[in-house]
Amino acid sequence: MGTFEPVHGRCQCGAVAFRITAPPQKVYHCHCSMCRRVHGAMFGTYGVVAKEHLVIERGRENLSRYRTSPPWARLFCRTCGCQLFLEEQGNDTTAFFTPGTCDWPSAEAPAPGMDHCYVGSKVPWYTIGDGLPQREAA
Fold it and tell me: pTM here?
């Protein structure tokens, strides 16, 4: 990996914008039923960085928090409903963001540790075929 260029992200309507200032430590595709429902997709994808590397540039007051299950809360734009972040109660060091809301400057994978979790909960008609590691838990 070369020098990291900050990555910018935003919700669909642009009311909330953020910046990632370091490469993600990990990116994972979660197949649990909550992530599938909240994303409206076969899985939800999250990036993980140290909290100091996630900077909300605008719209913090436009974020709504929805607690799905302890200790998790999802943060959405109040205007367009776009999920941008995932918070883990009691975790003051790690930030979770949705990489699909970012404008990546390169085609290089954003993190070396990409994988799939909660694969036992995946939709039965989808076959994971990307060669990434698969695990049952988080």
Answer: 0.90
